[in-house]
Amino acid sequence: MADQAAAGVRGREDGREDVPINVGLLGAGTVGSQTARLLVEQGDELTNRIGRPIRLSGVACRNPSDVDYPWLDKALLTEDTEAVVRGADIAVELIGGLEPARTLVLQALNAGTSVVTANKALLAKFGPELYRAAAAHHADIYFEAAVGGAIPFIRPLRESLSGDRVDSVLGILNGTTNYILDEMTTKGLDFDVALKDAQEKGYAEADPTGDVEGIDAANKAAIVASLAFHTDIGIDDVAVEGITRITSDDIAAATAEGKVVKLLAVVENGEAGVSARVYPALIPLDHPLASVRGSFNAAFVHAEAADDLMFYGRGAGGAPTASAVVGDVVTVARHIAQGSTGQAIELYNDLPKAPLSASQAVFAVRFQICDRPGILAKISQKFADYGLSINGINQDLQPTPHDPGYSGEIQTLRLVTHHCNEVTLRECIKDICDFSFVVGEPSILRVME
Amino acid sequence: MADQAAAGVRGREDGREDVPINVGLLGAGTVGSQTARLLVEQGDELTNRIGRPIRLSGVACRNPSDVDYPWLDKALLTEDTEAVVRGADIAVELIGGLEPARTLVLQALNAGTSVVTANKALLAKFGPELYRAAAAHHADIYFEAAVGGAIPFIRPLRESLSGDRVDSVLGILNGTTNYILDEMTTKGLDFDVALKDAQEKGYAEADPTGDVEGIDAANKAAIVASLAFHTDIGIDDVAVEGITRITSDDIAAATAEGKVVKLLAVVENGEAGVSARVYPALIPLDHPLASVRGSFNAAFVHAEAADDLMFYGRGAGGAPTASAVVGDVVTVARHIAQGSTGQAIELYNDLPKAPLSASQAVFAVRFQICDRPGILAKISQKFADYGLSINGINQDLQPTPHDPGYSGEIQTLRLVTHHCNEVTLRECIKDICDFSFVVGEPSILRVME
């Protein structure tokens, strides 16, 4: 089949209405197989929408003999990724990871072949290089599925909001962590138990690091920030905190206050510059993001003129992600049929990046302490020494059994700050942790105001 | 200024990077003035995004001498709408209503001038004619602001979801009625009081008919249905019910059941064909649409592969609507700079329209009755006669004072049906209303399952 793909009629140049546009798929996993299904099953409808037929010209995967879908002609399967790229008018990269994805995508773009990809890690690391290659060779690069799965969010950001000024995007962009936090909230589970449950149900991978440590969300934050602010913001610019330290105590305290804990990807254009961060935060229950349950994703946007917007939908899964991939394929195919391309992604702003030292917020801090007289006074004094003011404090009188090494009663002390500088707060907390009455690691959560 | 507009350099043909693209505004009201502001204030940013400068070339309005905005050069103001169209590369129609909007838009399109409009009534009535004119003359017609104000929804429907099959859209697409229902729910107000409050606060017009009778939402439903199903569905195809008959009793009963009343625009592609309807419905509190509060709008989409999606934001207001208008202007300007156009809107499917007789749903029906023995038996028997089954029934023992002409005690009888045929149910209810113990008009609300 490699030869068939490589020799496929390239429909772009001649512009004849009946010449099919060749789509080459790299990857035949969950998303790849569903993408193939939509392309095949909806072929007539897609032809109507594009004005020219679309043809699956090749599918590259590691073990072609293991792939068996009723809608997929086995003759299209090959191990030869480069042949699939060469035979395509549109190369759809669904391999994931940095290599060989980067090489293959660049190979396509440098040959003027448009690319559709769902690869967030690739774009968060090498986005600007790929955007430049696409522009230089008059090829399209579309990647709706890389952020928020099925949710049409990247395109509104690139196009619909192009007459406005985006101030911030708050995203729930990782379904695994949202599912885990949701289970912890509704069932009172501890993190470890909820994670195991998510793994058993297929919502979390065997190695959940990329999800629970916030790296997946951070990749998406980098992509979103670059597009929203037209500034090169890569994965290395994103400060990341995951959810592994969230305890059922944190969740219970949040619930008691009418709040919910969500892992947020936050990109902002503030006074100190642009920033992209991932952290767990306490959100009031009446905020639209609070109702994003289970494995759903959402992006909450504030723009100067549009005010508040939210985009909501399935952030993962084969068919939903394939919906976004095929939507991009149709757009690119229309451009090919027209002999045009979409607007190139140009990161023409070089906005300063806000230093972490500029980070300001309200924080909820939880310490575990061995209860003794005078502890509250010592902690309060430390806050005063650092010029930090406390908005509320709550000492839980129930013993908590979290440190098996301590035989006495461990209690939970929880306080909420006023709006304060994050670096100062962390220094203050580090000092407090030097007190012998503090047990284990404190939890520090941002509070959405 | 009319001459200046008419004589404005037409930038399209020569493609020089420094030749501005002329934007002519028809209308200088709330949205028009904010559109002008964004075009002027964000000029440099827009130039970056388009690759060519954009220039406000003329603003037509009824009384130029009354218009005074700090960002608007008064020399651009004119009464001469046709001159503004002639001088524009992009004509932005914000006059509203059918005429002269239709004539002006056709004039533009027939001359190959692209159009951006926020005019839902125009599109719901004459959409196919305008889409054909645009395609025939290689001009764009974009109208993000016509449905859901600032929410990027039309474009995802036209583009992002073009690789999927949309089954249904449930929209809260009228902010006025959503605000009124919200006030009735949270404050226990009667419809008349809530309407008056909305008028005083500027959320409802002096003549609220178009909003409260559902006509505004119906226009939007027609536009959405046409795009979602690629089938010509006009305003005359939309069955409409407004919210004027909703009482505080209906709201209280909904609240007691954990539901909320919303005016929905519903477009569906079902077994009996495609349909577009507007009606008030009972929605469970945990549905994402239930949390759409106040004057916000949202569209909840179900597509075959993408599954559930929701788009949320401000459905009205000068700046939010202008954000959508300018987003469209930027897209069209990019096309002009590229010498291309966007994909034409082709209603290539001619799907059958589902007859009202095919409408099936669960209904909540409320009668006001003069309580006498045997009433329940008589009503139940009527339902049985029509082959309709009742899922639950509730007789309110508190006297309700809704009919001042009746001196006895009037009670409320409320029942919820099983899934049933709407026409049959309405015939049954008509029969029941012939009983002398029934007072006034019953309320019939769909229940979302």
UniProtKB/TrEMBL annotation, chains A, B:
<dbReference type="Pfam" id="PF03447">
    <property type="entry name" value="NAD_binding_3"/>
</dbReference>
<feature type="binding site">
    <location>
        <begin position="26"/>
        <end position="33"/>
    </location>
    <ligand>
        <name>NADP(+)</name>
    </ligand>
</feature>
<comment type="pathway">
    <text>Amino-acid biosynthesis; L-threonine biosynthesis; L-threonine from L-aspartate: step 3/5.</text>
</comment>
<feature type="active site" description="Proton donor">
    <location>
        <position position="220"/>
    </location>
</feature>
<keyword id="KW-0915">Sodium</keyword>
<dbReference type="InterPro" id="IPR019811">
    <property type="entry name" value="HDH_CS"/>
</dbReference>
<dbReference type="GO" id="GO:0004412">
    <property type="term" value="F:homoserine dehydrogenase activity"/>
</dbReference>
<dbReference type="GO" id="GO:0009086">
    <property type="term" value="P:methionine biosynthetic process"/>
</dbReference>
<keyword id="KW-0560">Oxidoreductase</keyword>
<feature type="binding site">
    <location>
        <position position="120"/>
    </location>
    <ligand>
        <name>NADPH</name>
    </ligand>
</feature>
<dbReference type="Pfam" id="PF00742">
    <property type="entry name" value="Homoserine_dh"/>
</dbReference>
<dbReference type="GO" id="GO:0050661">
    <property type="term" value="F:NADP binding"/>
</dbReference>
<comment type="similarity">
    <text>Belongs to the homoserine dehydrogenase family.</text>
</comment>
<dbReference type="GO" id="GO:0009088">
    <property type="term" value="P:threonine biosynthetic process"/>
</dbReference>
<comment type="pathway">
    <text>Amino-acid biosynthesis; L-methionine biosynthesis via de novo pathway; L-homoserine from L-aspartate: step 3/3.</text>
</comment>
<dbReference type="InterPro" id="IPR016204">
    <property type="entry name" value="HDH"/>
</dbReference>
<keyword id="KW-0028">Amino-acid biosynthesis</keyword>
<dbReference type="InterPro" id="IPR001342">
    <property type="entry name" value="HDH_cat"/>
</dbReference>
<feature type="binding site">
    <location>
        <position position="205"/>
    </location>
    <ligand>
        <name>L-homoserine</name>
    </ligand>
</feature>
<dbReference type="InterPro" id="IPR005106">
    <property type="entry name" value="Asp/hSer_DH_NAD-bd"/>
</dbReference>
<feature type="domain" description="ACT">
    <location>
        <begin position="364"/>
        <end position="447"/>
    </location>
</feature>
<keyword id="KW-0486">Methionine biosynthesis</keyword>
<keyword id="KW-0791">Threonine biosynthesis</keyword>
<dbReference type="InterPro" id="IPR002912">
    <property type="entry name" value="ACT_dom"/>
</dbReference>
<comment type="function">
    <text>Catalyzes the conversion of L-aspartate-beta-semialdehyde (L-Asa) to L-homoserine (L-Hse), the third step in the biosynthesis of threonine and methionine from aspartate.</text>
</comment>
<keyword id="KW-0521">NADP</keyword>
<protein>
    <recommendedName>
        <fullName>Homoserine dehydrogenase</fullName>
        <ecNumber>1.1.1.3</ecNumber>
    </recommendedName>
</protein>
<dbReference type="InterPro" id="IPR045865">
    <property type="entry name" value="ACT-like_dom_sf"/>
</dbReference>
<dbReference type="InterPro" id="IPR036291">
    <property type="entry name" value="NAD(P)-bd_dom_sf"/>
</dbReference>
